[in-house]
Design goal:
Elements: H1 20-25, H2 29-43, E1 48-53, H3 60-67, E2 90-93, E3 100-105, H4 108-111, H5 115-121, E4 129-134, H6 140-151, E5 155-160, H7 163-173, H8 179-197, E6 204-206, H9 217-227, H10 230-239, H11 245-269, E7 273-274, E8 279-280, H12 283-296, H13 301-311, H14 315-320, H15 333-343, H16 353-357, H17 359-362, H18 366-397
Parallel strand pairs: 1-3, 1-4, 4-5, 5-6
Antiparallel strand pairs: 2-3, 7-8
Helix pairs in contact: 2-11, 5-6, 11-12, 11-18, 12-18
The chain binds guanosine-5'-diphosphate.
Guanosine-5'-diphosphate binds next to α3 and α7.
GO molecular function, one term: hydrolase activity
Pfam family, one: IIGP
Keywords: GTP-binding, Hydrolase, Nucleotide-binding
Length: 404
């Protein structure tokens, strides 16, 4: 697991970031660094607006909290179990990504507005997609709303909530209980109702907000990933809770794809040479990258605290499985230097052949190449460490053995 994964240099081109190649060809390193800085800043500000609607009591707030990795009892939590009386729209930002907003929209039935007026009132244009939640079969109102959303050329997904309740009830009442059989029946029922109402091949997902890793939530995640425009995918991915190994690996791949830009940026700035490292690297860029990894994997202190309360595992026990010196720490230049110094001279930081292979692609001058390769290898190493920690924490939170 500690092997550093290198990208195939043919998988990307400097053209991906307009202006960088041109700047480097003109030997305008400051210009290239500026373009990269711009990209790195912009990628953190991509807005994602998710509209969650359904009748009061359907499980909207609980779903929003689970998605954000926030415990229902948390003070940042959307209030649950309170009966709505007004047309109140509340937004809940993701605790790590304030540009990812979850909107708790009142059920269309509670508002008495026709679907088109309802959508105008909630300002439907701003939403990337809608989730329509019901804890029973979907109703005429849900159908009408979905049809109107479709007319507005927006995407919508049906979530049938509280599936854990159904499963438990069936377990108790049926002698020859089969999980697949029960789930299949519930889904069929939902789809039938929606099709009868006139929705063609509705997308229905069976979800328990108390156990997002079970039932259809992982499938909802994949569907959203497929259907979102490319530039929004990472925003959704990074704000997803670590519901399975696949998500952790996808986050890792997405971070890995960004390392080339950090490395060109670092080489272009070619900060202060560090004597024992013998090359100049830009430590502030490294701090930014590693902070991104830590937060994206939910390994910063506040994320771990939230996980501790949603999973019901003491904070200290989660921290006990961490092996990297970076997790649960504030990432600073000092910490990065400390960890780097530990690896200097080891093969982990040597500019291996693999790393050098794509230096020509960027047209980097020789003087910059060493810095590029060092940053590339260092960030790949840090990313691997944190991804491994994320897997261990994930297993610990589920009560599995973290070392297998
Ligand atoms: P809202 O009015 O649509 O926001 O619904 P809430 O999120 O407040 O949920 C209403 C009630 O259903 C609360 O008591 C929740 O604890 C419960 N609930 C919500 N989601 C689930 C779920 O997935 N499983 C179970 N068992 N209960 C749930």
């Amino acid at each position: 697991a500690n092997k550093i994964k290198m990208e195939n240099p043919l998988d990307f081109y400097p053209e991906e970031l307009p202006g960088v190649k041109e700047a480097l060809e003109k030997n305008d390193q400051a210009g290239a660094a500026e373009k990269i800085q711009e990209y790195l800043e912009k990628k953190d500000k991509i807005p994602l607006n998710i509209g969650i609607t359904g009748e009061s009591g359907a499980g909207k707030s609980t779903f929003i909290n689970a998605f954000r990795g926030v415990d229902n009892r948390d003070e940042q939590a959307a209030p649950t179990g309170i009966v709505e009386t007004t047309m109140e729209i509340t937004q809940y930002p993701h605790p790590n990504y304030p540009n990812v907003l979850f909107w708790d929209l009142p059920g269309i039935g509670t508002t008495n507005f026709p679907a088109d007026e309802y959508l105008k009132l909630v300002e439907f244009e701003k939403f990337d997609f809608f989730v329509i939640i019901s804890d029973t079969r979907f109703r005429e109102n849900d159908v009408k709303l979905a049809q109107e959303i479709q007319k507005m050329e927006k995407k919508f997904y049906f979530v049938r909530s509280k599936i854990d309740n159904d499963v438990n009830a069936e377990k108790r009442s049926q002698r020859d209980f089969s999980l697949e059989g029960s789930l299949g029946k519930i889904k069929e029922n939902c789809i039938e109702g929606l099709e009868t109402g006139g929705i063609k091949s509705p997308k229905v997902f069976l979800v328990s907000s108390f156990d997002l890793h079970l039932y259809d939530f992982p499938c909802l995640q994949k569907t959203l990933e497929k259907e979102l425009p490319a530039h929004k995918r990472d925003a959704l991915l990074f704000s997803m809770p670590n519901i399975n190994m696949e998500i952790i690996n996808k986050k890792k791949e997405a971070f890995q794809a960004q390392i080339k830009w950090y490395s060109v940026g670092s080489a272009a700035v070619a900060g202060v040479p560090i004597p024992w490292l013998s090359v100049g690297v830009d430590l502030t860029l490294m701090v930014k990258a590693v902070t991104d990894y830590e937060v994206g994997f939910g390994l910063n202190e506040s994320s771990l605290e939230r996980l501790s309360s949603t999973a019901g595992v003491p904070y200290d026990e989660l921290c006990a499985v961490l092996q990297s010196p970076l997790a649960a720490e504030k990432i600073t230049t000092d910490l990065i230097l400390k960890v780097l110094s530990h690896f200097t001279g080891t093969t982990a930081l040597m500019a291996a052949e693999e790393g050098s292979r794509f230096i020509p692609i960027f047209g980097l001058p020789v003087a910059m190449s060493l810095s590029f390769a060092t940053t590339y290898r260092a960030l790949s190493l840090f990313l691997n460490m944190l991804a491994d920690d994320a897997q261990r924490v994930f297993k610990k939170a589920l009560g599995l053995n973290p070392s297998v």
